[in-house]
């Protein structure tokens, strides 16, 4: 009897935390969309006013894509029944690192280490994709 009571309490607690997490992610999504649109406005403003500082504009584009990646990650969380697929997180890590290298290319040794990180993430992504294909073939 006591175990049944604990099991029901545990399910209630997990459900409560899941609801709090979902509401927090929805609110965070709206905040990120606001900042995404604001950054887009700044980029358009720089383009229309003739701002020639390429590094500043690329920095703003980087921030825009970071907001975009976070918003799409929240959307993926809800599309995938409230979990993040590992392949999606690897993909975001690869693209974010490439964007960072493009914008901050002043430090060659740092770019080299980041490139090694990209290779490691890419190999992980390929291994995960290969495993997923093998699992799908076994099911068929």
UniProtKB/TrEMBL annotation:
**Which Pfam families does the record associate with it?**
PsiE (PF06146)
Q: Which residue spans traverse the membrane?
A: 12-37, 57-78, 85-103, 109-128
Q: Does the keyword Transmembrane apply?
A: yes
Q: Which UniProt keywords apply?
A: Cell membrane, Membrane, Transmembrane, Transmembrane helix
Q: Where in the cell is it found?
A: Cell inner membrane
GO CC terms on record?
plasma membrane
Query: What InterPro entries does the record point to?
Result: P_starv_induced_PsiE, P_starv_induced_PsiE-like
Give the UniProt record's GO annotations in the biological process aspect.
cellular response to phosphate starvation
As for membrane topology, the entry says: Multi-pass membrane protein
Do the record's keywords include Transport? no
Similarity remark: Belongs to the PsiE family.
Q: What is this protein called?
A: Protein PsiE
Source species of the chain: Priestia aryabhattai
What's the source species' lineage? Bacteria, Bacillati, Bacillota, Bacilli, Bacillales
